[in-house]
Amino acid sequence: MTTDVNGSVRNGVDTAALFATLDAVKAAPPAAAFQFRAENQWVSGTHSRGTINGFFGAGEERAHERTFQFDADHPAVLVGQDNGPTPAEFVLHALAACLTAGLANIAAARGIRLTEVRSTVTGDIDLNGILGLDPRVRNGYQRIAVRFTVKGDAPAAKLRELVEQSRARSAVYDVLTGQVPVDIEVTTD
Amino acid sequence: MTTDVNGSVRNGVDTAALFATLDAVKAAPPAAAFQFRAENQWVSGTHSRGTINGFFGAGEERAHERTFQFDADHPAVLVGQDNGPTPAEFVLHALAACLTAGLANIAAARGIRLTEVRSTVTGDIDLNGILGLDPRVRNGYQRIAVRFTVKGDAPAAKLRELVEQSRARSAVYDVLTGQVPVDIEVTTD
Predict the structure, then answer these.
(1) What global pTM score does this model have?
(2) Which residue in the set B85, B88, B182 is minimally distant from A144, CB to CB?
(3) What is the DSSP letter of B37?
(4) Which chain A residues contact residue B11 at CB under 8 A?
């Protein structure tokens, strides 16, 4: 729990710390170079286990307060054992979480108190792509739709602007709608 | 645990079921239309909780065997409470899991027994983008690197080909290196 000693906490966001972080990065732009990481270990079939802990940022090697582990798998209809969500579902979760975190930060910075933020993200995919059955079909989502419900102490237009600004500054929205160079290396011994 | 009554299970993949699924979709391509979903509820600050359960596929509404929930947050250095990984880290986890699931399926189909598959995914991001401090910097990852270790009963060249084929058929690799239309709707009442 954040203790609001100076009245700067809004929506659970310490706006003083947020603005101090912005000022620190303005003064030293290289502090904004981050590297995030995920480790993965195959278990069996389509089941694997991911581990997230260390990252680099603000000039030094860091770690989360605890190690996060997540299983991924396919459901039975996709020849898996359903030990976790599909990898593609984790992408939808990431998008919702990214837009929501940004929304809370932006609302706090603009002095808007939120009372509720919910969203549903859907991703339509034609598995003729990944199954290699139709070369005209892409492997990934053909379209993603996000439906937000946002409530707070501001007019509807202001609440909608929060979502728009969060979209405009979202890391996950960017990697889905833009293109990221992905390099793959393989070691076999 | 999959019981291998007919010797068709390899790497934990029931290859008979895998080929039967391919044949079923070949016979009825619309069965390959899937929709995955994630729900998200804002908790406080940058902390939100995602829920994954229902999906549509193979012609009907379905659900995972259990409901999966995942917290996402920012670490303290990014003005959060570290209640979960960052949304951007979930994307790296999804990529590793997708490439790994594909690799196990492809190896099974090709008759290769895997003994170990591990990977590390790193994503470099310059937060001057999402902080709005430099318009030349993108919001998302500037580059992603995947380092695989793959071991099994095949020559190194064959093991490398598994990774290459998995990349060529990966849903998550596709959405990161391609572009997905993302539509956002907002309700405020």
Answers:
(1) 0.96
(2) B182
(3) E
(4) 44-45
The alpha-helical segments, DSSP class H, found in B31-86 are none
* DSSP secondary structure of A162-174: HHHHHHHT-HHHH
Do B92 and B174 belong together in one domain? yes
Task: Identify the domain containing residue B106 by its residue range.
Answer: 85-178
3-state secondary structure of B102: helix
In A, which residues are within 8 Å of B79 by CB distance? 13-14, 17-18, 21, 105
In tens, the pLDDT along A4-25 reads 656 789 999 999 999 999 999 9
pLDDT (tens digit per residue) in B93-136: 999 999 999 999 999 999 999 999 999 999 999 999 999 999 99
Residue whose tokens read 């902080």: B131
Our separate counts of H helices and E strands in chain B read 4, 8
Q: Do B119 and B135 share a domain, yes or no?
A: yes
Say whether B79 and A14 touch across the interface (CB within 8 A). Answer: yes
Taking the Cβ of residue B178 and every Cβ of chain A, the question of whether any pair is shorter than 8 Å is answered with yes
Q: Could you tell me if B25 lies within 8 Å of chain A, comparing CB atoms?
A: yes
Decide if A32 contacts B130 (C-beta within 8 A): no
- Tally the domains of chain B: 2
Residues B74 and B96 in one domain: no
Top residue of A120, A184, A187, A189 to mutate, by most chain B CBs within 10 Å, is: A184
Question: Does residue B189 form part of some domain?
Answer: no
Q: Do B117 and B54 have their domain in common? A: no
The answer as to whether B23 is a domain residue is: no
Q: Are residues B91 and B174 in the same domain?
A: yes
Contacts of B95 in chain A (CB under 8 A): 38, 87, 182
Give the pLDDT score at B1.
47
B122 and B140 housed in the same domain: yes
Question: Which pair of structure tokens corresponds to residue B136?
Answer: 């030349």
* Residue of B174, B72, B86 whose CA lies nearest to B130: B86
Choose the closest CB to B85 out of A68, A105, A189: A68
ipTM score assigned to the predicted complex = 0.96
User: Could you report the per-residue pLDDT of B131-155, keeping only the tens digit for each?
Assistant: 999 999 999 999 999 999 999 999 9
